[in-house]
Amino acid sequence: MDFWKLFTTALVPVLKVLLVTGLGTFLGLQRFNLLRESAARNHLNALVYFVFTPALVCSILAKTITFESLVLVWFMPLNILFTFIIGTALGWLCLKITKAASDMQGLVLGCCAAGNLGNMPLIIIPAVCKDSGTPFGAVDVCNKKGMAYASLSMAISNIYIWTFVYHIIRVYSCRNFNVNKVDNSTVGPVSAIEADLENHSSTPEVTAAHTNDLVTQFKSDTVSKENQIIKPLKTLVKRLNLKILLAPPTMGSILGLIIGVVPPFQKMFVGDDAPFRVVEDSASLLGDACIPAMTLLVGANLLNGFKRSELKVSLLVGIIVVRYMALPILGVVIVKGAIRFGIIHQDPLYHFILLLQYALPPAIGISTITQLFGAGETECSIVMLATNVCASFTLTLWSTFFMWLVL
To answer: Which residue spans traverse the membrane (predicted)?
Structure first.
């Protein structure tokens, strides 16, 4: 295929995303007042998070993933992990170069690490497959395989976002509230018991009662030290927050994989003859609402990006460079190296999705995480606004290049 046909094929899905996002922005304007109020967006966001996303991921994975296909795509979880690790490293480098403020560090690292592996591939892949000039073969075969790849990508990214990125932003957010908190009463070179022992060490006449008092005080001090060791461990367990680790999208992903990989479960829920097919059909019906609702939310949340904030232009440029220049170039090196050494199977559509994972804008889930901690919400909206505007150009160009590369 020539360049312009590939370019048109890559442009169509990006335009779809922009149109739906633009609609969300208009619905958030004061004139329409449908998604303007934060309460309305929060309720819709809760529906997407607790209902639509788990239903979508579970239904698609249950229908499209089998044990054999899961073995073939074993490299995808590793590839997504590479995007997170490399993005975090590049984000840390960006922080050092721009000398970012401490309250911006978690947001920058999160935006550099996590790409929008959720709804973006689920929109791009079907549009690419349905285009008349698609380079990936028959429409039905391309769509079935592409949705399986995109759904698995979404499932894995949800796990990484709500474990890896969540804790990065949490650590940096909590750090801002725990600076210069030193209790002067605990500062001193010698403890009271040590001073007391020093004062009496040179005195030969030490009464038995005083000795017992010292022993009792020493035991009390030992118990206090043990509490100082155990208490941080308990705090760590509480901060891990298993409810977040087992988030609804993650649970939906796990459930869909179990149904798809285990043949008896797949026969029970998937197929025209399945006894519980109504459950899978209902989940699929709910899941169909996920992509438009999520994309509308992106457009409505972008309105906050017009507010003033303390986000430096250099940080914004750094995030854009990391996500749209450095990461895609390194992704080409990694994926082409894996193809050359025969690590991944020969499927151009699979190769295209692996490459696409390095060129996407920041994940929408980062907005939710910043709202949870109440840190950098306005700045996150500005980042989302700028990166999504840039994505309309960069994603089209990179998609065109990726399709040319894998053919």
So the answer is: 6-27, 47-65, 71-95, 107-128, 148-169, 244-265, 285-303, 315-343, 349-370, 382-406
pLDDT digits (tens, 9 = 90+) for 171-192: 877 766 554 343 443 333 333 3
CA torsion sign for 220, 221, 222, 226 is: positive
Asked whether residue 153 is assigned to any structural domain, the reply reads yes
Sign of the torsion angle spanned by Cα atoms 128, 130, 135, 138: positive
* Main-chain phi, psi angles of 36, to 5 degrees: -75, -45
| pTM of this structure | 0.75
According to DSSP, the residues that pair with 115 across neighbouring strands are 362
One-letter amino acid at 93 equals: L
Total domains in the chain come to: 1
Q: How many CA atoms lie within 13 A of 269 on its CB side?
A: 25
57, 158 contact by CB (below 8 A):
yes
In a domain, 226, yes or no: no
Residues in the chain: 407
Orientation angle between helical segments 365-373 and 166-176, nearest 10 degrees: 30
- Tokens matching residue 59: 């239904």
Q: What is the DSSP string of 133-145?
A: T-SSS-HHHHHHH
Query: 25 forms bridges with which residues in the sheet?
Result: none
